[in-house]
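Structure tokens please, single chain.
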Amino acid sequence: MNTGAKKMLSLILLIAGVALMIVSLAMDFGGSQSGARGPMLVIGIIAFFVGLYLFPTMKHHRKIIYFIFLFPLLFTFIVTVIIPLALGICYSFTDWTGIRFNQVVGLQNYTTMFSDPAFIWSILITFIFVVLNMILINLVGFLLALLCTSGIKGGGFFRASYFLPNLIGGIVLGYIWQFVFSNVIIGLTNNISWLAQTKTALFAIVVVYIWQYGGYIMLIYITGLTQIPGDVLEAARIDGANPTQTLFQVKIPMIASTITICTFLTLTSAFKQFDVNMALTNGAGSVPSFLGNYLSNGTQMLALNIYNTAISKNNYALGQAKAVFFFIILAVVSLIQVRVSNKKEVEL
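Here you go.
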């Protein structure tokens, strides 16, 4: 097939593919019940990419092939992340019921959100929880990594044992520790469960989360520590550096990028904490006075607050507004953390 015929066939397939996709999507949005919508969409996509593949331009042909192979992942990301995010932002300005909306209410959901003391409290304890976990999980994970890379006998067993809690689902983990706090540890605290009071309940959630996530962070630190060149450590030893000096002046600076990764992971994961919070306390806990109000959701963190607003209280529009605000907080804090950590890497 000569170049002209190949180009003509390619254009026909491209046009036919785009036309089929547009028609199938129009039928879908128009409420058509025709069973031809799905096959038309699939045939249109295939025709479009075959047309791209056959297009006779050597200059951009490799880029076209790359795009074809990346398209399934890009399409999935757009459909499952970008489009829902855009729709969620739009729904937060409406009276959306989870199925449809009747009118645009502007900033009403956001003003309602910030006038709710329970939501403000959830933001506050979420930040407290995040700060505690960022510090403690990274400290515990790093210490466990040092232990497992110190040449101790049974190092593989210890690695597997420390990582095992991460394999347990958060809901199951929460119920296991609920039993522990209410039946086992209660004898050490004057027969008062840790989950009975807001302060100790929040500390209990921190303990459980560290127990679950510390082993995962440990493995990342182990990877960083084992990649430190042996001749660097040997040079430090020959120069007379003791173990403490080697740790702070050689090992930690050389795993700065690993610290950045672990800090980012613990930050984002702690912010999104939901399952352990739900299973362990379900947000219960009394706060006698906060902004002049009595609160009964003393351990309800931000993700659980959003879930309860949308699902339990059936207020999807307000829940979506809270979710948008949550996304903004997480994005801003994550960007700041990565920027600060990158600067520290350069200094180290």
